[in-house]
Every structure is written in C-alpha cells, then in structure tokens.
Design goal:
Blueprint: E1 3-7, E2 15-18, E3 25-29, E4 32-37, E5 43-45, E6 59-61, E7 66-73, E8 76-84, E9 87-92, E10 99-103, E11 106-111, E12 117-119, E13 130-132, E14 142-144, E15 150-153, E16 161-164, E17 174-177, E18 183-187, E19 193-195, E20 207-210, E21 213-217, E22 224-233, E23 238-242, E24 245-249, H1 269-275, E25 279-281, E26 298-300, H2 303-309, E27 314-315, E28 326-327, H3 329-359
Parallel strand pairs: 1-3, 5-6, 12-13
Antiparallel strand pairs: 1-2, 3-4, 4-5, 7-8, 8-9, 10-11, 11-12, 14-15, 15-16, 17-18, 18-19, 19-20, 20-21, 21-22, 22-23, 23-24, 25-26, 27-28
Helix pairs in contact: 1-3
C-alpha cells in the first residue's frame, strides 16, 4: 500500500488523502496513480515501481510507447531526453542550437544544428562531419565514406595501415590533393605511385613509380613505356636495372681519392691490342633481356671476346641470367694508350737507329 494523495475531478473537486505506514507516497488523479515515490526516495512517473539501487536515487519515467524529459527556456522547449521503442535519445530541440557535453565545467564535445561533431573545439576546423582538436587514439578501425570505402587501422605487425576498399566500381585508389583540391599524387590499384598523372598511360608531364621500379618514359612529357627501371649503388658503381635485367654501370669514376695501390701497367699492351677483334653489328631483339632491334649499324667489340684479352674492360659474365655484359671504357682506353706509348717508343728507337745508320755512311 501507499499514502495516496488523490486529485478529485468530480463535482466539488478537491483532494483526498489515504494514510498508510509503508513510506510510499502515491500521486493520483481521479483514482488513477501517475507518480509514485518509494520509501527510499526513488520517483516513478507512469510506474508504481521506480528503479532502485542501494545508495542511489532514481527517477523512472514509463510510457506505453516512450518517455520524455524536456527542459525549456521560457516557453521554448530546448532539450529533450527520452526513450522511444528500443531507442534512447538526447535532443537539442531548437533549429539553431548545439548539443554540448561538459566535464569539469568545460565543454568537451558538441554537435551543432547541422549534425557536425566537434571534439575539443567549438567550431568546425574544416568542412566535414567531424572535427577534432588534439590527439586521437583508436584501437580498432576508422572508416569513412558512404560505404566505408576508406579505412585506417593497425594490426599486430603494422602501427598504421591506410586501406582503400571500394567494391563498386572495383577501383580503390589513394589520392593526395593540395589545399585547392588539385590532385598531386595517387596510388592506383596496382600499387603504382603516380605524381602529376592519373594513370601510367597518361602523357601529361609527371612521373610514375611502379611496384617494381620507376616507370620509364621518353623525356618529361612523352608516353610511358611498359618497363620499370631502378638504379642501384653497390658502393663503387651505379648500376642500371631495367625490370629484372642488370644493364651494367652507368658512370665511370676515376677520382684519385677513391683509389689505392696505384701502379704503372707492366703487361705489354701492343700484343693485347693486336689480339682484339673489332666487329660491325646491329642490335637483335631479345625479349628476355628487354632489348629491341633498331636497325642501326654499329662498330665495337663482343664483350666476352674482349674479356678473354682484357678482363678488366668487361662488366658481367657471358650468358649470365638477368644480366647484360657491358664495356668498361676506362680500362680499354688505358690499355690502348699504353699500346700507343709502346708503339711510339718503338718508332723513336727506329728513328734513332735510322739516324745512326745515316751517320755511319
């Protein structure tokens, strides 16, 4: 039972009080209970059994379809707290107001009238639905886009992973833009990094980095080719790689500061030069070595034949997989110069012998 305070709505009006010793206070209208305060001070509106918990006080609202608590400024309802069906909600009921959350008398978060969320800021830092001022920590995925097309997360092996995930159309790319919204770089679905262009097939000025190397192109605005190139520094030479083929060194360094054990050549050069086999040739197609014929007649040497006579003048091994033999012209030139010097010494000696013969007549 309860102490019942009943508002009488029949003729004469007034109210009636029904005493009770239970400590429960019941508020009625025309004999129907609408509000109850139990012996612990918990208040129930729409229920005679308000929620309770030791050392806590509850206000319980119960309605058939839902319950609302409203706060007004003057005659204007500003805030609504309620439950509707299986949902709970908090609402700023005005068309221009903000929903603000405070701790320690300081605003920490707000949702403005347009639905934009600000954390640590009272205004949008940039256009968008979420603005955060300060560090953001997260132990799961951060998704964005209407269908979660972008994702930021970490796993056991990587501290930060950016993922583009778009099912339709089946193209997921990363794009970097400047402040005015102009694209400057992208990573396409094949893993190519494109700077200043939107695809490896673009002819506009720009560059592209593929998953296996830089994508080759003619000049700065010519068409992109199908091959990738890399330059590898092995500590003493820069080597050019086209796809998986080592093309050889692309620079000849001769600074004294990178040399030691310098000695004059002692091997006879004329005899070695006499053994060389100069040839004429044209380039042949070789798909395995990424080489194409061009029909140009050339003069030169066959690398492995030259290596048999002057080993230091050839880079690479004959028939090596994924490597093209190339010439080291500094070694070849030095032997040729020594051969000329030897030849000149012979000429000078012959000249002296001729003069001696002339003098003896």
């Amino acid at each position: 039972m309860a102490v019942q305070l009943n508002a009488i709505t029949s003729a004469g009006g007034g109210f009636s009080v029904t005493p009770d010793s239970s400590g429960v206070l019941s508020f009625q209208s025309a004999g129907t209970t609408y509000m109850t305060m139990d012996a612990s001070g918990n208040l129930g509106i729409g229920t005679s059994s308000p929620s309770s918990f030791t050392n806590y006080r509850f206000i319980t609202l119960s309605g058939t379809s839902g319950s609302y608590y409203q706060a007004s400024v003057g005659s204007t309802v500003t805030a609504t707290l309620g439950a509707e069906g299986a949902d709970a909600f908090v609402q700023c009921a005005t068309t221009t107001g903000n929903l603000r959350l405070y701790t320690n008398n300081t605003e920490r978060m707000r949702i403005d009238a347009s639905g934009n969320v600000g954390i640590g800021t009272t205004s949008q830092i940039r256009s968008g639905k979420l603005s955060v001022s300060g560090d953001v920590s997260n132990n799961s995925n951060i998704n964005w886009g209407a269908s979660g097309n972008g994702r930021l997360y970490s796993d056991a092996n990587w501290g930060c992973i950016f993922q583009a995930d778009r099912a339709s159309p089946s193209v997921a790319e990363f794009m970097w833009q400047n402040g005015s919204g102009t694209e400057r770089m992208r990573i396409d679905t094949s893993g190519n990094v494109l700077v200043g262009v939107t695809s490896p097939g673009s002819y506009a000025a720009g560059s592209a980095i593929g998953t296996t190397g830089y994508i080759s192109r003619s000049g700065t605005a010519g068409s992109f080719g199908n091959n990738r190139f890399n330059i590898f520094w092995n500590g003493s030479a820069a080597r050019l790689w086209i796809d998986t083929v080592d093309q050889g060194s692309i620079a000849i360094s001769s600074d004294y500061r990178i040399k030691k054990d310098i000695q004059a050549q002692t091997l006879t050069a004329i005899d070695r030069i006499a053994q060389l086999k100069p040839v004429t040739y044209t380039y042949a197609d070789n798909e395995d070595l990424n080489w194409k014929a061009d029909g140009v007649a050339r003069e030169g040497f066959i690398a492995h034949e030259l290596a048999e006579i002057i080993p230091s003048a050839v880079d690479g091994e004959k028939d090596a997989e994924n490597q093209i033999q190339s010439l080291k012209l500094d070694a070849l030139c030095s032997v040729m110069v020594k051969a000329i010097q030897e030849q000149q010494a012979i000429i000078e000696q012959l000249k002296a012998d001729v003069e001696a013969l002339k003098g003896g007549k």
